[in-house]
Write a structure and sequence with these properties.
Radius of gyration: 31 Å
Order of helices and strands: EEEEEEEEE
Number of helices: 0
CATH architecture of one domain: Sandwich
Strand content: 35-45%
Structural class: mainly beta
CATH class of one domain: Mainly Beta
Strand order of the largest sheet: 2-9-7-4-5
Largest sheet: 5 strands, mixed
CATH superfamily of one domain: CalX-beta domain
C-alpha cells in the first residue's frame, strides 16, 4: 500500500513492506506396515500409505522401491519402484504392490518398501514392512496297512 495525499504532513516514506513469516514446520513423511493374505491363485494387492505430519503448500515427492526379506521378488510379490507424489494440501498417497497367490504351505513371508530421496520434506519412518499371511493348509502324511503272506521254506 502507498501513502498519498497527506494533509498537514509530509510523506517521507510512501511505501511499507509487510513480511509474513511462515511458522509451519516442514512435513515429515512416513510409511505404514501392512498385512495381506496371499490367496491360492491370481494376485492381490498390498496397499501402503505414505503420510505427512502436516499439509504443505508445495508438492512433495519421495522415491520408493521394494526389497525381499523372507518373501521372494517375482515369486511371492512383484517388485515395484517409482515416485510417490503428495500434492499441495493433501496428507497422503498410496503405493500398491502386487502379491502372487499360491497353494504351497509355507511360513508367513515378509518384504519391505523403502522411501528414499524426499523433496520438500524429510522422512521419519522410511521403511514399510508387509507380512504375507500363508493361507494354505499344512500337508498331512499317512501310511496304508499292508499284508504279506508268509512263504514256506524248502
Amino acid at each position: 500500500m502507498n501513502l498519498t495525499g497527506a494533509t498537514n504532513a509530509t510523506v517521507s516514506d510512501a511505501q511499507g513492506l509487510g513480511t509474513i513469516t511462515n511458522d509451519d514446520t516442514q512435513p515429515t513423511i512416513s510409511i505404514n506396515d501392512v498385512t495381506v493374505t496371499e490367496g491360492n491363485s491370481g494376485t492381490s494387492t498390498a496397499t501402503f500409505t505414505v503420510s505427512l505430519t502436516n499439509a504443505s503448500s508445495q508438492t512433495i515427492t519421495v522415491n520408493y522401491l521394494t526389497g525381499g526379506n523372507t518373501a521372494d521378488a517375482g515369486i511371492d510379490f512383484e517388485t515395484a519402484n517409482g515416485t510417490a507424489t503428495i500434492t499441495p494440501g493433501q496428507l497422503s498417497t498410496t503405493i500398491n504392490v502386487t502379491i502372487n497367490g499360491d497353494t504351497t504351505f509355507e511360513p508367513n513371508e515378509r518384504f519391505v518398501v523403502g522411501l528414499v530421496s524426499p523433496t520438500n520434506a524429510t522422512t521419519s519412518d522410511d521403511l514399510g514392512e508387509a507380512i504375507i499371511n500363508n493361507d494354505d493348509s499344512q500337508p498331512t502324511i499317512s501310511i496304508n496297512n499292508a499284508g504279506v503272506t508268509e512263504g514256506m521254506r524248502a
